[in-house]
Amino acid sequence: MSTFLYKLGKKAYHKPWYFIAGWIVVLSIVITMLGINGMRVSSDLRIEGTESQKVLDKLEQELPEVSGGQASVLFKAPEGERLDTPELIAAIRKAADNVYSLDDVVNPNELAPESGAMQEKQVTQNDPNSPDGALHGPDSSDTGTTVSAEMPPYGPLMVNGTPVPGVIISSDGRIALFQFQFTVQLLSLSTGVTESVVDAVENAVNGTDIIVLPSDSLKAQEVPFGTNEIYGLLIAAIVLVITLGSVVAAGLPIVTALFGVGIGVGGAFAISKFVTMTSATPILALMIGLAVGIDYALFIVNRQRRLILEQGLSAREAAGRAVGTAGSAVFFAGLTVIVALCGLLVIGISFLSIMALVASATVLLSVLIALTLLPALLGLVGERICSRKSREKSRSLAAKEKGGIAIRWAKGVVKLRWLVIVAILAILGTAAIPVAEMGLGIPSGATANYDTSARQSYDAISESFGEGFNGPLLIVAEPRDLSEKFPPESLNSLAQDIQKMDNVSVASLAGVNKNGNMAILSVIPKTGPTDPETKNLVENMRAADSTIAQTYDISLGVTGFTAINIDMSDKLAEVFPVYILVIVILSLIILLLVFRSILVPIKATVGFLLSVLATFGLTTAVFQWGWLSSLFGFDTGGPIMSFIPIIVTGILYGLAMDYQVFLVSSMRESYVHGHKGRQSVIHGYNQASRVVVAAAIIMVSVFAGFIFTHDIMIKQIGFALAAGILIDAFVVRMTLVPAVMALFGDKAWGLPNWLDRLLPNMDIEGDKLIAKLDAQE
Questions:
Q1: Which domain holds residue 465?
Q2: What is the rounded CA–CA span in Å between residue 114 and residue 119?
Q3: Residue 690 β-bridge partners
Q4: What is the side-by-side order of every strand in the sheet holding 211-214?
Q5: Where would you tag: which of 290, 301, 401, 507 has the fewest CB atoms within 10 A of its CB?
Q6: 438 found inside a domain
């Protein structure tokens, strides 16, 4: 491998325009595809096999008109006024009609040919304060029923004695809630649908003082790129200049990284018309692509400059050797990240698989660009890669090594190794404590910032109608013997009994399928979508041995956005330990092959687990408990995004092994070349620490730039990755690792003879290549 990369690097250096033109062509193709296909992101977090998804799939076949997702718009009267005036009622009625006229919205009047008579009958039969029509239009069969055990502080919005379908108004007349249904689930809506709904409502109330507050489910899916990422790049540029001592040299890693993410992220968007991907997919690829793209190029450029300054090689020869040696480590490091990400495929969750594949492709591109485009650019720069000032400074390098910061730090860590080990274990153990209370879920309007319409709508709905109206549940009831039909009277009593369940606010019958053996009900919990009591209600309804299931000899399926989120969180929490086990086994095998040692893989894996636990502990404290929330730009703590623990673990593993390889392989190189015991730890640390520190600072800066975006999901990912790299690189790799290595000394490299014969020699640092080249001189 190292010999092949050496030849590849020299060829790219000698004929740079062939390689540069090739990559420009690839980028041009991606841009062309992007222009033709456009960009599309989705909120689709579908998880096959969950109870809610099974119910949805069945509904789409049996009763598609009630299988779509629900959304709402809140109308708020101006201060000191009411909404139940003729002018404002007419505006709200027009808003509802405008929304129902859209192709993607279910019109309850079309579901029932005799809807007017049906509505009138329901108003006279049911409690006048019952929110009839607030959830779904009545079915064509005479089964429309809404049950309310108490007199709720709201009722239907009436026009000439007839309720406006889907609209209820608070008893004080200040708040009206319009709830409606799409023809498909919220996760599957086409681009622009939610914007059309909001526009239809705002056009209807234009000219009035009504305040319109769309729910969080109507928030348009945006490509979550902003200007905050630029700050991370600026810090990366400063670190590169300081590390490499040259503006020219510092610019190359940024150029290659931008090339990589341009092709990787652009390519992902170019196929987004054909492959459903969440908004987090391209942003994750951008995060990783920028971080590894800069770091991998940094490792190679730094190695080339060291060969020029320390060994007096020409820029061309140094570039070839840098690609052959550091490039081999880059190839392996990138492969490790790709393996960790692709490990997500075994979980079998489609949106996670797409995220992993797009991120993996971007990392692969970063590796290929570092091994081909970078040496080509180095060929254009030539000998200017090292300035005259840098060459003059290199002459006093040996003197500086004796008293440099890295040497002093390494000696201090080695000397106080026991104290360092105990202190780090105590610090990381303390940081990990909040993990025990980490709650997984999907951020909702309840966790949005106070100045957003989603949060204002959520709070107003909760205050006027009850928090459960923010997350209705869709219930599917079926006889256990599917050949039987539901008698109409049993449906009425079923709705009444569900209404009597703990934590149920309102139960409404939505319809029955043509065969009469499937009934659909809407249930409004008393508690909010992310409340543990709502989860308990869902579980109680699904229980096969529940009183309702046994009394009516039926099975109850629960779906809807709230149930989908509950199932998703449970599923991801269930597979997370399995994924951790896969990562641990991979870590032990890969590091055993690289370092030909038993102790080093175990130490590295334990250090990684400490980093992960501490990372999620801090993430929980900040985003769930709300610590330092004002600093990170959010107002209210909430659940950790369900898929973040899995995706962050995979990424952190790959990046942690990067630092492990570059730092510990340098210690091994020192050991192989005659530095024994603790001296090999200090010498190897000094050789690699500067570039590892720079790489870690760059990664932390890039990830931290995403913390200050407006999207809470991106905030959490950015924070977790930035905190994870900060902990793993500086606390574990740069401090704990040398302390443990010094504790074991030469025994750290011990390997049984039988295992030594079985394991292939990976030669990550290219020792065989260097020996071969030295023999030819």
A1: 51-220+448-559
A2: 9
A3: none
A4: 154-159, 162-170, 175-181, 70-76, 211-214
A5: 401
A6: no
